[in-house]
């Protein structure tokens, strides 16, 4: 129907304009069909990115824990060396104390013998005792 004929028909006789839904639905379905693989690809990429980030965090934490473990092991070795040194000093001090006690005991015995001998005879030289 041409424009003149259409104008000549009254508003009541003119055919009502129709909306063609088929092209709209076809475009909508095509768009959705194109977006679904795109969304799936984006979701896959996001998952890979999250896994890589988690792996990096785990690697960083592992490295940090290894460094802390090495520091603790070093400190343990330092403490063990200090303990060995302290034990050696303790042993030397015990030996020295034993020596001093032995010397003190001998001196006391010597004085006792000297005192005892002094009471017997002042002019007589002290005898050596074992």
Written description of the protein model:
The chain has two helices and no strands. It has 130 residues and is mainly alpha-helical. The chain has one domain (25-118). It starts with a helix and ends in a 10-residue tail after the last helix. The mean pLDDT is 86.
Number of helices: 2
Task: Report the C-alpha radius of gyration, rounded.
Answer: 54 Å
In the predicted model, the low-confidence regions spanning at least 5 consecutive residues are: none
Helix-strand pattern, N to C? HH
- Estimated helix fraction: over 70%
Termini separation: 151 Å
How can the largest sheet be summarized? none
Quote the average pLDDT: 86
Strand percentage? under 5%
Structurally, the number of domains stands at 1
Tags for this model:
rod-shaped; mainly alpha; 2 helices; 130 residues
SSE layout and pairing:
Layout: H1 3-8, H2 21-120
Brief characterization of the structure:
The chain is an all-alpha fold. The chain has one domain.
